[in-house]
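Purpose: get a first structural picture of the assembly so the mutagenesis plan has something to point at.
Setup: two entries, given in the order below. No constraints added.
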Amino acid sequence: MSLLSKRIPRRKFIIFTGVAAASLSAPMLLREFRKESEPSKLLERFVTESGLRESYSIPSICGMCMAQCAIYIDVVNGVPARIRPNNNAPTSSMGICSRGVAGLYNTLYNPDRLLKPLVRKPLLDWLEGRIGWAEAVARLKELRGTDKEFVEVDDWWKIADIIARKLKELADNDERHALVFLYGAWGPIASLRLPVPLARFLDAYGSPNEIQFDMPACVSNRILGHTLTGVHGHQAANPMVDWWNAKTIVQVRRNNPGAGVVVTAWRLGVARSEGVKLIVLDPAFSEAASMADIWLPVKPGTDLAVILAAIRYVLENPIYLDSEYLKRFTNAPHLIVVSKEHKLSGLPIPAREVDWAHYELSPQYGEKLSFTVFDPSTGKPMPDDVAKDFSLWGSYKVMLKDKVEVEAKTALELLREWVTANLDALAKKHGVADYMEAVAKEADVPVEDLRKAIRMMVEDRAVFEIGWHDPRFSNSPQLWRAIDILMALYGRIQKPGGLFMASHLFAAQAGLYTRLKLTKADDPFYSIRGDTISSYNAKFGARLGIIPLVPPLPGPAERGAPPIPKSLTSEWASMMSKEGYPVLFPTHQVQALYDSVMFGKPYKVKVLMMFATNPLVQNPNVEVWKAIFKNLELVFIHDIVFNDTALYADIVTPDMTYVERLDLPLPGIYSPFPVVSIRFPWYWKPYKEGKIEREIRPFNTRTGFEILLMVAKKLDELGVRARDGTKFAANLPVGMLDEEGKFPLPRLERFINMVLRRIRIVDAKGEIRQPTLDDFYQYGGYMMLRFTGRTVEIVDEPWSKALGREVKLRVPVFEPIRYNVKDEKKYWTMFNHQNPLGFGTPFPTPTGRIEIYSVVLAREVKDVLKKNPIAVNPSNIEGLDAEVDPLFSPIPLYAGRALPDYVWASKIPATASSAIDGLKMPDPSKGELLLVYRHGPFTHTHMATQNNVLLNKVTVDSLFTAWIHPETAAQLGIKDGDWVIVEPATPKVLKQIEAVNGVVPKMKTRVRVTKMVRKDVLYMLHGWPTESKRLRGRLERIKAFRDPSFGVTDDNYFIPLLTTQLGGAYAMGVAVVKVSKGGEP
Amino acid sequence: MRPVFVVDPSKCIGCMACVVACAIENAVPFTLSKSDPVGWPKTLWTRTWVMWIEKEDPAPSRTLMPYLCFHCQDAPCERVCPTGATFRTPEGVVLVDHSKCIGCGYCIVACPYGARYKVKEGAFEKAVRDAMLDDASKKLREAGLEDFIMKPPSENKWAAEERVVDKCTLCYHRKETGAWIPACVEVCPTKARMFGDLDDPNDPAAELVRTGKARHLRPDLGTGGLVYYVMR
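Result (structure tokens, whole complex):
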């Protein structure tokens, strides 16, 4: 009988039995109290050992988003009951957000949680020999898109068997590359903490195809813009604004207090309360805009023009220029060859190319991997690491060793020339004299607000947040470049009050740098002053705070196997290039799946495995994705619920939720200081006390790690070898599984201690040793690590054994620190203000400096586009016929394809490919509006929380409406609260849907008529698809605002699937929809 | 100990962690609550809320306003209560003694701040069933685990109960643990909600009150109270 049906006042259930503990910074021990119900059979064993009925708190890591806030799971009477903040971590210094607090309603209390593996019947028929593979696939394809014929399976080995057999078939046919791991990375990385096992499995198997679609769908543009400049732009570096010393903060395409990770909202709030000003550029009145001193409601895609105006303002008012900073830390003084007919045209001059004898200077200057500047104190060109002074401006002639005298200008001179010419051309286009007026017209903002904002930015030397989600336009990488350049002009990068690098993440996020091809030591344009990104991390790593977390077993790559060929991204990028549509910096190109699966180009992928992700509806033009998923051979998804993508899967397996898992260590994302954190499960205390021997699994679940190991084990049994001929068990800890395919807790504990083996700490007794899981537990799961300056030599025993030779290396020694918010400002000085970047440690760019003129970009224009980067014409605004499109300019410009895509691509007829064409300009008078989606608020930043009934309840109704401006609404006869019909109006969307014989989507949604949004925009909360009806909480919440019986309920159905040419990202900001008045549901 | 509760709306980001933490701590049947942007406990059926106050003229503005019972010194709810169920603790916290409350609702009408509501009979069963949480509970039970869905996670004689009036208690039940911090304050990631002690000279929340930077929201109503707002 349910306790709830009793009418006895509930306080009588609770019997006070003990005395409890106290301090807020220590786990709050709770009183024990007796419950009236009998222990069930499953727990009987544990209860009789008298361990489990107690109450205690476990430090753990929240899994509700990527932030890695530290929490306490309060266990009461043997049951997880509540989640509270753990303040001993820099991500949860003050508290946690609603998602974290409501975590149990996503996990244990989730009514739609998957409890058992599901496999479609045709697969079981095939496994058991009743039908052949061809017939199985044919039937699977028919079933995809429905939830029919799923059979509950108890034996996980069957699943491992199916997958392994299919992978064996691929291996036998020399098609290992036909396996793709697909996910929005924050699921498996931050939530599951699985990036290393996933990457290792693929390396061992021999597929190069790990596609983290959240690169093109979210972050790759912004990361590219920053890394091209020398700023580490991963969003984990978002906390790296020096809030404590800033004067003015600017947010562009970012809603810090409205979505994402809450830790930065705290810091912003304190800064604001101390008088720091805020400027926000956003087409709608976001939560950030409501806190701003100035809100510029820019026309979508024109933010770049605003920043260029600010750059010009600084250049024309040199009192704001930090000349010493520019000389010391940036490539502003580097001489860029402007002579057109030379191999170095458009590039800086490496010192080794100069004829130093001509200047009666030491020939040794030619042996250096430095770059050339003009030294006014000598009146000669000099290497930048020898010159006593640097000219920041001017044009110079330099004699090169090939006896050609080239003309060169400083990067700063080029910046001034090009930005001035560009904005003058914009002024001419708008028929005004003043560039500020021109930009105000272009961005459609009041000119006085624009002037005020730019003055405030420049006079206060404002710091910009690095941004977050920006797959919106082709020009997005240039926007972030421009922002970094502006901050460099007034000296706010790596300086108090400015932006700092999360240099402790350089190694963990080394993959971000592969696009830059900094891989050839000793090539000035393909290295970091002679170092590859690997040798750079090895050389400077300890100083930069990099923490060595290394798997206990080496894999093929570590044993020296060459890179895996036939990467889908690379081959697809080559194919696009040959078809006349080059992508300069491809990465994780999920668009390749469209060409691969639908058209077999560059080759067909066949098996898709997904972990903690929902790509069907997380990528644009959902109808196209339905077709893609229908056409694969085998689709596997691992999650805690039957999400929308599961409808298109053949195998759906249930995960343990984060409160139930012990997870691998993760280096400190979202922390402004180097940290490592480890997630402990709710039953850790009784386990450590020996009261239970194993993990507690209420349901038939496996972790993602376990699944990978089970498949690896089966592959070994089937005789499939890793790509270098070794057994999978030599590459992955297959031997640690038990007969049920579980990784028992004691073995996982040992494994994690091995992962920590290369870290050295000075412990409380002054001894130098590795930290252990027990240490992490004592520290509350979060350990800050400060490099002491010492290194010690160690022998890596596991690798020595595995490789058959002694592996000796030097590792850093850290001081472990338990974070305390009272010392936050001290940590900033300790870790960030004293960060060595720029002081003996180069920035990670070819010049080793912050690049006003991007060398990598110039290099790629030459090498990939086969054009001369100096041939950019900054005055050619409409520029589609330009020799070098300004989109690729080494100095950001607002021209050509760097205008918003819906402007220039509206002139090009629609095709079905992912190249940009077939767009439309908004026309509010006809109800044709730009679709601008938003994330957040904090209650729901991502889809993973949308089934949480508690979070749904606290998300205010007004956020679920689609916002439309009163003037636009009046033109269309729409009133506040009306239902409207939304249809795609972008020709490209329709063309792509037609190409796959898809269904044209439509949506019925309620509107809010408000001035909080631009007239040309329809503003909507992102997500809330209802393909899967099994997420009942989500369905219940959204149906009052988007009618699932009428049509679709998610914005991604209306956006074309595009590839932008600079970063390879999507262009999610370009979709125009038609809005018309609709009836009642 | 003289507690004060200080709210700084300028730091509030509307993350609603406070509302969620309160609902869990005090076993509020939250699935019956409403999600209006502007509302009070009386209209929303929850102990605390964050109002999204948005205006458009002359220019768009948005204030996020955390809201709770003000624990008045001169409390109208206490005055009108026919059974003496509503009372003030020595620290000034206004509580409802469930054993005396007859659920007449007079206090709900009397409160000028709309800080109270009544939990109806059958509320918990409906709250759980409507949100399919009985499903979640059943699955856990079959697996051998119990749950705390709409049950207080710690000993709490002022947790929400059917047929009695419900309101913010400043998590008075936590006082006995020796670590008295209301759940909403504990979780608030920006410390827009603060809890302090006027007797502690070093307490930053108390300092805001002492210096007059934080004041009563409606001094014109003359009820006083433990809750102060920093209005910039």
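The helical segments of chain B are 17-25, 41-44, 76-80, 106-110, 123-130, 133-142, 183-187, 204-210.
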